[in-house]
Amino acid sequence: MGQMRLVVVGAGGRMGRALTKAVTxxxxxxxxxxxEREGSEFLGQDAGELxxxxxxxxxxxxxxxxxxxxxxxxxDFTAPAASLWFAELAAQARIVHVIGTTGWAEGEDExxxxxxxxxxxxxxxxxxxxxxxxxxxxxxxxxxxxxDFDIEVVEMHHxxxxxxxxxxxxxxxxxxxxxxxxxxxxxxxxxxxxxMDPRKTGDIGFxxxxxxxxxxxxxxxxxxxxxxxxxxxxxxxxxxFARGAVKAALWxxxxxxxxxxxxxxxxxxx
Length: 270
What we know:
Layout lengths: L3 E6 L4 H11 L4 E7 L11 H5 L8 E2 L2 H6 L3 E4 L3 H14 L2 E4 L11 H5 L4 E4 L5 H16 L5 E8 L9 H14 L3 H4 E2 L14 E7 L5 E9 L2 E9 L3 H14 L5 E3 L1 H4 L5
Parallel strand pairs: 1-2, 1-4, 2-3, 4-5, 5-6, 6-12, 7-9, 8-9
Antiparallel strand pairs: 7-10, 10-11
Helix pairs in contact: 1-9, 6-7
């Protein structure tokens, strides 16, 4: 393979700029197009200058159809509705679609599996190596510790994040549920307020904190009688998610059409 030609969607946002930078720093990949919504203030600007890496000769446009047709993959950290549309275009172009978008409603991402019949879709609530390793450890711990150990997922992000719990928190909660052999939706407790009944055995609780400029902190607590185990991940640089997304795109280039996760990319499902 020569240079993998990548499209960055949402190129003017914080993650879009981080993705552009990550591609320029990675051998084997190049940015060939940058997309923003119609009417965006970033249209016409050079994607490299927006990302702080110098001119790339890639102006930001609002024409994903043309961009996808001349590329090998797309990096997408946008919004669920946009990601669904991009997945349709990726399927038409038969390219790689890396999705780091969070905030999905239950079942909202089901159409992605249809698109994956033609596209290579890699979707994850978190593109970090560390977080995906953490999820594997959570799965093992949940399987090893019986229901006498209560499970709580605690997360904190910057004050501008709009979805809660975060995609990473849900990824970790799902890992815990899989370890226990239970359905997360039936056992998740996402809010506590006022006078409540005692905690039910087997529940998986979520606590959400927002403030300042925190990039992302996640803890999974296994609380038993007289002892507590905590597994923690702290993100200190947004670039780690962007680098993971580029790694996923390069991995996906040689795969058959299908629906994949970062655990597949990192070989954690082997």
